[in-house]
What does this fold into?
Amino acid sequence: MEVIIAKDYDTLSKQAAMLLASQVISQPGSVLGLATGSTPVGAYKNLVAFYNEGIVDFSRAIVFNLDEYYGVAPENPCSYRWFMEDNLFKHINIRQENTHIPNGLARDTAAECREYEEKIRRAGGIDLQLLGIGGNGHIGFNEPGDSFKSATHLVELDSGTIAANSRFFASRDEVPRQAISMGIKSIMAARRIILLASGAGKAKAVYEMVQGPVTPEHPASVLQLHPQVIIILDQEAASLLPPRA
It folds into this structure.
């Protein structure tokens, strides 16, 4: 696990974008796993800038997003499909058929989850997975206590996650209580992983991820067992970590 401490959010975002762009430049048909939420927005803005400058071409890239709210239509501005279109997809030359996000309206969620895993398998697996981290240590929507052996599945959202995500909705009551998420097993199958964390509110979760025991009670701690993980933090998110030589 390599830990990089950036001086601020802008620097963190550019470093993440450079790693993602480098992956696509070196392997144009790369399969990327992408995340939503506030933290990766800056990285996506940088990727759009790189594309506009002619630095990177996404025409052959394939994307699988980590998760989607259950019961939320893709055209809903609160959906993760909308988020990805608004922050990245519609600003670059990625092919629509190469962008994959779980179907939050699937009637048979078990079948949807199996099919999502099969799509990833047919694409050759994820080359580089981008992650954020929740205040309770979740990655994707894998909440504390979720099995490390889980593949894509329907999850019940933790009350803390619901509270944290209420900022994206008109009220807390409108936040979905379930989501379809790649599981820990799915995430750990990626060849390389980048995790981003910004702000003092993530400092405790970052400390437990890097310094704590590997336990399902802190899902991100499992990343200690992955051979190719880069953690990029700003100063505030890294504030509880011991000084590094």
In short: The first strand starts at residue 2 and ends at 5. The mean pLDDT is 94. The helical segments are 9-26, 41-52, 80-87, 109-122, 159-165, 184-188, 203-211.
